[in-house]
Write a structure and sequence with these properties.
heterodimer; A: alpha/beta; ABC transporter involved in vitamin B12 uptake, BtuC; Rossmann fold; 2 domains; 4-stranded antiparallel sheet; elongated; B: 380 residues; alpha/beta; 7-stranded mixed sheet; 5-stranded parallel sheet; globular
């Protein structure tokens, strides 16, 4: 099947029309249809599509950009619906009052539940959010005095704007799509800005995002709550279009519809939410004449869409109308930081256990400005754990990590990164869907005022490592050596006082290692203290001014590199007792 | 496969039926009656009965009434029902066979009033006739009627004073429970146990056990089809001797088909009618025609919808040339249907009779044990 899809793709022409023009034409067709051709029924379907488009735009923020499969989105939709339904039909409130409340109620619930559930990963998060949806549904069904119970509440008034009761048909469709336009524009600007880029990195690699100074928890919570606001707005509009609120707005089919729209439309894209909603709301209507059999045709059509456009409808558009590459910015050095001197980082008695295993056991070290320190030891000796403890990815059981007199031990990775510590990873982790420039610019998102500024600074970092020619290339498919260099550039773009490198020479050729060594010496010469975890003694010993050797989490040797080869304990640890 | 072929043949039948549509504006002697019912989702069994009843009535239209129709699935969401009604309203409409799902009816009512379309339904739940909307006509006794009959049979005929009420946590269940509660109160009986059950519950033994712990002398059910069958099966399997008087879902042949006749022994149920139980030649003819057309057994929903559409067609035959004339005819007229005599109470409640059917344990066809006519309902 995959081969067939690839062959179909190969046959697909690449059109010269700019993508914005293609999207504009589709929008014009939609508007012309609404204004000139659509029957009241057509306008009704279009209106409902607008409601779901708005909900899906919000879902794109938390799921598409943030990568969190929130199954509470349907519940937020329902809460917005019930807020409008109850206040409108029971309390006689008008749209001007009910609509803000419909945004506020899901927002408050998202804040309340977001803090605990956003700590959970992947499917646990999905299950927790599903639980929230179930609880809200049960409350709605079993609180008839407030919600009308399973019957729901009829008599919800229509939308009233500045004294004008918006009638059904074109005016209602225009109002709903007006909200879609506003919400879409806001989401589009957010997605293209620093916040959207940061959120995407959180989705692709939350560990790396934290070490680049991004507040992963804060970003996730913001995405979760913002998406809830969108869902609440959509729910409010849904109730105004059907004039009754009942538990169906809280049921799982709403959630499934929004999820399907996001996936079929194109994950993370506002245009995807709109295209997906328009298609998925119209698709069943086209096959209604088949009575219950329409579900089979609908399912087949959906499946065909997903198989033929695995990246959604927007992916299809990208393929047919490829975006022109944006011109690269001029490289610009970030503002100079004070040249540090003396000891920059002091680690004192750091310990960490996993169950009964002491991975790091009372390790101390000092990193001086402008020096390179080697960290060696056999596999499992605690090297990477030590780097994780210093950079905040692991919580130490004891000990201190002092930088500028402040103890950073146990602090969040983003706070440690902001204190001036940057790192790379043993397994290079770059966002596959991003360009090299975007990947490196991610390191500047927390510091710079705009994407353009961050990219100019990122290009500067790439230039320093002789990798500026890679800027426009996608990270996916880069060979190992270049991936390591890009990752190093990303760490360098942080302008760190302390740089922690976890096996930076792994997989490199001798020539590449020599080049890397030159870059590291140049970085150290600016005052940065570097800690290099490495197994390759031929690379490390000539580079480092000081070496710390660990064995079973404990320091085995600390001293000049020359002493490593002659230290019997080190030799025994590496080569065995009899060596 | 048999079920699939049945669906296919029903769809083909409907397609052929739709293909006979006459174009143009409806005149006296023409009736355009879209059928907007839930064919998918948790109410698909009942919705299909409703559809079949409407389609059969349209097929049996008087010779001098030309019929146009199409069947549209409303699923179970109010949103889909409103969209379906908007779609149907695109043409000239005489009346609509409208969903039996209360929440869908509540959503369709404002639109029906705006467009001036009579909604002919068999929805027995929710306060659809309490909205002051003159365009709704219910050809199935509401809970005010059926639950009075239900409670009266339990107390007056069976002489029970300690009912345990088990209902569904849906619109249908909550509405029935409220009316049962009121009916028992009027009859001076207080339930010893009341509990709502989620329709997705896969094991009803816990609620059965809790109910029995309250030492009831009768189990009163108001559950959907599947849960009713599950409850009765589990009660039979556990040797429960307390009699069971169930809601209208039990009378459906599709519910009885889920159980062995022995499991049904002594079980009774309230309903508007039980066409498979026979009673008169007209009902037996209807049942035979239904079986021939749909390869299925008719229930009270099918018969109620059949009667409702027949009343619409009779109005058209009598000269009602548009929706407003049909509305007036339904509001003011009387119709001798197969299940009962229908007339509006001024709110659109057309059905005022209910029956109690009981199973003898030897077959899945119940016998009518008691008939309640001209029931006004205790909740007014």
């Amino acid at each position: 099947m995959r081969r067939i899809v690839h062959k179909v793709w190969a046959l697909a022409p690449t059109l010269t029309l700019p993508r914005w023009a293609a999207e504009g034409m589709m929008l014009a067709v939609l508007v012309a249809y609404a204004l000139l051709y659509a029957s009241p029924y057509g306008l009704r379907v279009l209106t409902v599509a607008g409601v779901y488009a708005l909900a899906a735009i919000g879902f794109q923020i938390v799921f598409g950009l943030g990568g969190a499969l929130s199954l509470a989105h349907g519940a937020f939709f329902g809460l917005g619906a019930y807020a409008t339904g109850i206040l409108g039909s029971q309390w006689g409130w008008g749209f001007a009052a009910t609509f803000p409340v419909s945004l506020l109620v899901p927002l408050l619930l998202a804040l309340l539940v977001g803090l605990p559930v956003l700590r959970l990963e992947s499917h646990y998060f999905a299950l927790a959010t599903l639980g929230i949806a179930q609880v809200v549904h049960l409350l709605a069904v079993n609180s008839p005095a407030l919600t009308g119970g399973a019957n729901g509440l009829p008599g919800v008034p229509g939308i009233m704007l500045f004294g004008w009761a918006v009638p059904r048909g074109l005016p209602l469709a225009a109002v709903v799509w007006g909200f879609v336009a506003l919400g879409g524009l806001l989401a589009w600007r957010l997605a293209r800005g620093r916040w959207g880029r940061a959120l995407t990195l959180v989705r692709d690699d939350p560990l790396a995002a934290g070490t680049l100074g991004l507040d992963v928890g804060g970003l996730r919570l913001a995405a979760f709550t913002l998406s809830a606001v969108y869902a609440g707005a959509a729910g409010a509009l849904a109730v105004h279009t059907q004039r009754v609120v009942s538990p169906e707005v809280l049921e799982f089919p709403v959630m499934v519809s929004v999820l399907t729209i996001a996936v079929v439309g194109g994950r993370g894209r506002v245009a995807g939410a709109i295209l997906g909603a328009v298609l998925l709301l119209h698709l069943p209507e086209w096959f209604r004449f088949l009575e219950r059999s329409y579900l089979i045709v609908y399912g087949v059509a959906l499946l065909a869409t997903i198989v033929l456009a695995p990246h959604g409808l927007t992916g299809l558009l990208d393929r047919l109308f490829p975006a022109r590459p944006a011109p690269l910015p001029k490289p610009a050095a970030p503002p100079e930081t004070a040249n540090p001197t003396g000891p920059l980082l002091r680690v004192e008695g750091l310990t960490k256990g996993f169950g009964g295993v002491r991975a790091v056991d009372g390790v101390s070290l000092t990193l001086e400005a402008g020096t390179i320190t080697g960290l060696i030891g056999p596999n499992g000796s605690g090297k990477t754990t030590l780097v994780n403890l210093i950079s905040g990815l692991e919580m130490p059981d004891g000990g201190r990590v002092l930088m500028g007199g402040t103890d950073l031990a146990g602090q969040r990775p983003d706070r440690i990164a902001r204190a001036g510590i940057a790192r790379t990873f043993q397994a290079v982790s770059l966002p596959e869907g991003a360009s090299v420039l975007a990947a490196v610019a991610a390191a500047r998102l927390e510091r710079d005022g705009s994407i353009a500024q961050a990219e100019a600074h990122a290009l500067w970092a790439l230039e320093r490592l002789g990798a500026a020619d890679l800027a426009a290339k996608p990270c996916a498919g880069l060979p190992a050596a270049l991936r390591r260099r890009v990752e190093l550039a990303r760490a360098l773009a942080r302008q760190p006082a302390v740089l922690l490198l976890d096996e930076p020479a792994a997989g490199l050729t001798d020539g590449e290692k020599a080049e890397l060594a030159g870059h590291l010496r140049a970085i150290a010469a600016t005052g940065t203290a570097i800690l290099v975890v490495e197994h390759d003694m031929g690379f490390l010993l000539p580079l480092a001014g000081h070496v710390l050797c660990l064995d079973q989490g404990r320091p085995l040797y600390a001293g000049p590199p020359e002493g490593v080869r002659s230290d019997p304990a080190v030799v025994a640890a590496y080569l065995g007792e009899g060596a | 496969m048999r079920r699939f072929l049945s669906i296919l043949s029903a769809t083909a039948f409907s397609a052929v039926f739709s293909a006979t549509l006459l174009p143009g504006v409806a005149r006296a002697g023409e009736a355009s009656v879209p059928v907007l019912v839930p064919l998918t989702g948790f109410l698909s069994l009942e919705g299909t009965s409703q559809r079949n009843g409407a389609v059969l009535a349209l097929k049996d239209a008087p010779a001098d009434v030309a019929v146009r129709s199409e069947v549209i699935d409303t699923g179970t969401s109010p949103e889909a029902a409103v969209t379906a009604l908007e779609r149907a309203a695109g043409g000239t409409v005489t009346a609509v066979a409208a969903s039996m799902l209360g929440t869908q009816m509540l959503a369709m009512l404002p639109l029906a009033q705006d467009y001036g379309i009579p909604l002919v339904t068999v929805s027995g739940t929710a306060s659809i006739t309490e909205q002051g909307n003159p365009w709704v006509f219910r050809f199935f006794p509401g809970d005010a009627v059926t639950k009075e009959a239900h409670a009266r049979y339990v107390t007056e005929e069976l002489g029970k004073k300690r009912p345990a009420v088990i209902y569904q946590t849906t619109a249908y269940g909550q509405s029935g429970k409220a009316h049962l509660e009121q009916a028992f109160k009027t009859l001076g009986v207080e339930p010893v146990f009341e509990e709502g059950v989620d329709p997705a519950a896969k094991d009803l033994l816990p609620v059965l056990t809790k109910a029995l712990a309250a030492k009831p002398d009768v189990l009163v059910l108001h559950l959907h089809s599947g849960p009713t069958a599950l409850f009765i099966r589990q009660a039979a399997a556990n040797g429960v001797a307390v009699p069971i008087v169930a809601g209208s879902a039990m009378h459906q042949p599709s519910t009885a088909a889920l159980l062995e006749p022995a499991e049904l022994k002594g079980v009774c149920a309230e309903t508007a009618a039980s066409p498979i139980s026979g009673g008169n030649p007209e009902v037996e003819a209807f049942t035979a025609a239904y079986r021939a057309a749909f390869n299925a057994e008719p229930d009270a929903f099918a018969l109620g919808q059949y009667d409702g559409i027949r009343m619409v067609l009779a109005a058209v035959q009598a000269g009602a040339g548009n929706a407003e004339a049909v509305r007036k005819a339904l509001s003011a007229g009387t119709h001798q249907g197969l299940a009962m005599t229908y007339r509006s109470d001024g709110k659109g409640n057309m059905a005022h009779s209910a029956v109690i059917v009981c199973y003898d344990g030897a077959s899945r066809v119940p016998a009518i044990a008691k008939r309640y006519d001209n029931v006004t309902g205790v909740v007014r």
